[in-house]
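Example record for the data management plan.
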Amino acid sequence: MMLIELTTRSFERFLGRPLSDRTDARWLYKHAPFGLLVHNTEPDPVFVYANKSAQRCFEYTWDEFVGLPSRLSAEPGRRAARQDLLDEVARSNFITGYRDVRITKSGRRFWIEDGIIWNVLDDRGDLVGQAAIVFPGTLLDALPNDLDRVSQTRPRRW
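Corresponding structural encoding:
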């Protein structure tokens, strides 16, 4: 079975609804209005899928994205919190309403707003990865190192 089919089936299994009205692989890759990312289960997981929306959001091409350690989507100071979140998803199968700062290839920081992260299972029920839907929110020109002071920055919309 194709990875994207496992991804959409796992989403529906855990969240009780389809990923979107359209779940064909071509539409999800080229036209989905949200970023869709999947990383594998290696000890240092790497991205194995990133649709066009995610590629634009993070400023990577397909060839740059696939094989990239997924931890690099977060700044070094945010990686431990990101890993804690992924560990929670591994235990509970999914989370919704996720919000955090991520970083693009060029170093620009932006909010992920109302994200969803879930486990991707194969037909036997074995974990083969984790997927995320990301909705890029505000682009932060000067995000302070202290995230508690983020409200003091002036955000821009994409």
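Summary line stored alongside the record: Confidence is low (pLDDT under 50) at residues 146-158.
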